[in-house]
Structures are given as C-alpha cells and as structure tokens.
Amino acid sequence: QILDLLRKIKVEMSSSIMLITHDLGVIAEMADFVVVMYAGRVVEAGTVDEIFYNPVHPYTRGLQESKPTLGQKIEKLHSIPGNVPNPINMPPHCHFLDRCSYACEQCKGPYPPSVRLSETHYAVCHRALEIAKKNKKNGTQSEHSPSNTPKMTDAGSTADATKQENRASESEMTGTTNEVVCEPNAVLPTSKDTVKKVTVGKAKAKKKGGAND
Predict the structure, then answer these.
(1) Whole-number Å distance between alpha carbons of 66 and 169
(2) How far is CA 154 from CA 2, 3, 201, in A?
(3) Which of 61, 88, 113, 212 registers the highest number of CB atoms within 10 A of its CB?
(4) Quick one: pLDDT at residue 183?
(5) Are 85 and 98 in contact (CB under 8 A)?
(6) Burial class of residue 169, CB neighbours in 10 A (0-12, 13-18, 19+)
(7) What pLDDT score does 163 carry?
(8) DSSP 124
(9) pLDDT 10s digits, 55-90
(10) Which residues 6+ apart lie within 8 Å of 100 measured at CB?
(11) Beta bridge partners of residue 33, listed in sequence order
C-alpha cells in the first residue's frame, strides 16, 4: 500500500522519487536506476535491469547472493564475511578488499577507477570488465533477475507483470522516471530542486482544489 501510494504521488506531482533502502524487493519493484554504495562511496550504478541481471562489483554480487530466490529452498542465506572498515581511518585501497572473494594484488594499490560497462552502467573495481565477461559467459542473468526477487506487495497478493506495466505507463504519462544520475565517488546531489518542484506541485493542487488539503 505504501509503495502504491508513492507511485500515485509521483504521477500526481510529475516528479521523481529517491529511495534509500537495503530491501532488494522494493528496488526491483520500484526503481528505474540504482546506485549501490559501500562505506560511503558509490561502487556501482546502472539501470535496475543492469544491476540485477549483470551485477559486477563484488559487493553488489554479495547483496544479490544474500537474497532469497523464488522457487528455491535453502537452509541458510549467503552472508558477506568480514566487517566494514573503520570510517575514521579508511584505507587508501578499495574499501571492500578485506571482504572480497575477487581480491588480487592490484586491489592493494590505489583506490580503483570507475569502469564504464555501458552508457548507463559503471562499476568501481579493478576486475569489473573481467567479472562482466564472466557474467555473460555463465548466464548470471537468470539467477539474479528482478523476476526472481521477492517483492513488497499488498497482503495476500503477489507481484506480477501488471505492476511493471503500470509503472511503465506512469513514466510515459508524466515524462519522468525514478532515475538518479550520479558520478563515481561523488556526493549525491541535494534535494533542493526536488523540494521546489514538489512545493510548486502542491501549490497548484491547492489552487485547483480550493482550501481543502
């Protein structure tokens, strides 16, 4: 119900929504563009399909492997070993190094650069291209796809193609998406423009509907 309300507000105000969450089900159902952060830095970004079908950064892959998968029974979910580094004394190398199963000697050097995988997809990892090729070869898509991710839905119901179609039609109607574009390792932009847009939308709604909220 809450997610449906957010979608309704987005359409009515012709605006975008930024969701900050660890719930992969919410991301799969609501997001168009996803930014993955670890230890205060952006480590991967892309469309929701790119992040779920082709996760490249080892942290993103760890998150995907930690989620339950529809139609599969397992005794214990995967957990990423180790701990987040001390934020007071961050190392100069990749912050995920000590927890990464893909770590190599190069990872102990300077912080990795951003590697562009497509026009909308990039990952901050020395082995990004190698992992992306491995995904394509092994068919990671079917394992991590949004369709296999349990979604947040109304009680007693399940997510289906209808919600995806409704979300697409909403974007077409308003000419907006939930997309947030962010450069690697950059501080996320403030919401001043969004607040201004919402305020204007609210003022118009009041003018149209009178004094009633």
Answers:
(1) 31
(2) 9, 9, 28
(3) 61
(4) 40
(5) yes
(6) exposed
(7) 41
(8) E
(9) 999 999 999 888 777 777 777 778 899 999 998 999
(10) 58, 59, 94, 107
(11) 47
d(CA 8, CA 14): 10
Amino acid at 1: Q
Q: In sequence order, what DSSP letters do the residues of 27-60 get, joined into one string?
A: HHHH-SEEEEEETTEEEEEEEHHHHHHS--SHHH
pLDDT, tens digit, 9 for 90 and up, residues 29-58: 899 999 999 999 999 999 999 999 999 999
Q: Of 51, 48, 70, 47, nearest to 149 (Cα)?
A: 70
With 0-12 / 13-18 / 19 or more C-beta atoms within 10 angstroms meaning exposed / middle / buried, residue 98 is middle
Nearest to 151 by CA among 6, 11, 9, 25: 25
C-beta separation of 63 from 37 below 8 A: no
